[in-house]
Design brief:
alpha+beta; 3-stranded antiparallel sheet; two-stranded antiparallel sheet; 3 helices; 5 strands; about 15% strand; disordered N terminus
């Protein structure tokens, strides 16, 4: 059986036995090589994704919304910031997931 659940067999070289006679091919001295590689069960992975996606999707939307709002607010000309400059706040907002934009809104903005 060349294909099994979870594994795939790859055969290299000529077949060691002729199916019709059951004998080796004349002059064939190369060994028969069989490599088995693990093939992931995609059906199981898709089921896991369907279970996790409803939990992760709202967090992803929240992250993107906070990121966009914070970046737009940061780069307004009239906006002044506290503690560090605007480029540093931009890095914090972009690279420190949900906490970065929240830190900017609560601690980084200087209200006029």
């Amino acid at each position: 059986r060349p294909f099994r659940q979870g594994r795939r067999a790859i055969s290299l070289g000529p077949a060691p036995i002729r199916p019709e006679t059951g004998a080796r091919q004349p002059g064939d001295r190369r060994p028969f090589v069989r490599i088995e590689a693990h093939v992931p069960d995609l059906g199981h992975q898709i089921d896991q994704l369907r279970q996790v996606l409803p939990l992760v999707l709202p967090l992803l939307v929240l992250q993107l919304a906070l990121l966009l709002l914070a970046i737009v607010d940061l780069f307004r000309e009239e906006r002044k910031v506290r503690f560090v400059g605007k480029p540093i706040w931009a890095l914090v907002i972009v690279f420190v997931n949900i906490v970065g934009p929240l830190a900017y809104f609560f601690a980084g903005r200087e209200d006029a």
